Amino acid sequence: MQQTKIILEESEIPTHWYNVIADMPNPPAPPLGPDGNPVTPDALAAIFPEALIEQEVSSERWIEIPEEVRQGYTMWRPSPMFRAHRLEQALGTPARIYYKYEGVSPAGSHKPNTALAQAWYNKQAGIKRLTTETGAGQWGSSLALVGQMFGLEIRVYMVKVSYEQKPFRRSMMQTWGAEVVASPSNLTESGRKILAQHPDSPGSLGIAISEAVEEAASREDTNYALGSVLNHVLLHQTIIGLEAKKQFEKLGEYPDAIFAPCGGGSNFGGVAFPFLADKAAGKEVRLVAVEPTSCPTLTKGHYAYDFGDAVGLTPLLKMYTLGHDFVPPGIHAGGLRYHGDSALVSQLYNEGLIDAVAVPQLATFEAGVQFARAEGIIPAPESNHAIRACIDEALRCKETGEPKVLFFNLSGHGHFDMAAYDKYFSGELEDFEYPEEAIEEALHHLPRVGAAGG
Known about the structure:
This protein is α/β, with parallel strands linked by helices. It has a domain at about 65-110 and about 235-445: Rossmann fold (3-Layer(aba) Sandwich), CATH 3.40.50. The chain has 18 helices and 15 strands. It has helices spanning about 50-55, 65-75, 85-90, 110-125, 140-150, 160-165, 165-175, 190-195, 205-215, 230-235, 240-250, 265-280, 295-300, 345-350, 360-375, 380-400, 420-425, 435-445; strands at about 5, 15-20, 60-65, 80-85, 95-100, 130-135, 155-160, 180-185, 220-225, 255-260, 285-290, 300-305, 315-320, 355-360, 405-410. Strand 6, helix 5 (about 140-150) and strand 7 form a beta-alpha-beta unit. Helix 11 crosses helix 12 (about 265-280). The protein is globular and about 60 Å long. Residues about 450-454 have low confidence and may be disordered.
């Protein structure tokens, strides 16, 4: 019988996270304050516990996973890796396709990998409440899940368009005890300011971040938790790639190319960074971040210092950005809507160590349906981006006859995203390419500090 699932034992859950900073050819560009000077770790203490701040700035290659966090991971980890035999047959490709399935977590995505760690560190620091933002709802669901595990109150500012489009994600968060607020809201000065200017604002991740950060900074019992972008978040997600390496070792295989969806970068960094260590040691592997053409941050954005939120409450991060005031088109149903990207992912892309491609909306859903009909799992719309790029590569292998090993991260299931599939099947979705003039215009709104973009 041909092998389909590659399973690890719970004892094989990694004991350490991998910190890519240790193997980057150049040190990361530092976060800056409004005065243009590097931000000290103390400046982050208003919203993060000390342990996470230490991880944010650490250059140690391996950071130990606390035993209680590792034990918590056993709820869903190790996650299975699959060989996509049926998809290979459907495509008629000589490529061997593998995927890691992160939809086995209770929240249905990869996001609890960092939510669990962040909640534990905050609990250890004596914090009682966490605020956060969520777009598609996967991150908010994950933080709500771990909040009830550790007895923390959770308030989630959910991007208004998603709040309205995804009522069942809202219900998930409420089931796990979180309070969910449509953003922009009247609860914060940031939200009120946006609503005064744009009463019908659909919201954005940048706006929701502003609201969550503002609240956390104003209360001593409350910290902020972020689901992507920051170094410590990507660090926690490397458990995906570390497990995948063990699974490939069991098979005696190694990927030629790795694909992962990229919005803020935690999914991509989580699966790709442990393989980047091999690349640094001379191994040939192509690492591809896949994003939507309607939010083409890496492929068309400016490489510059910009705020992580909409109103300028966060430090300035050097990243590929569409401008902190970017609001994604309401017709876009596939997630991955953040205006910027992880500073680490951005720097590695700028230095040519990773690749990026942008794919149109209709093609991603077409790929997701093709995958579901072959493999059975209905993927999250975000995951469909990686599937699209992987299928395209498999079809190129069909033309050339190359038996490449292709690997993608199936970051979550789409069971709470069926409204987006409904729109696809009824012809309501359309392709949208973010206008060049809007990308150029964003350059004029970037902070003056280090704002020469590329």
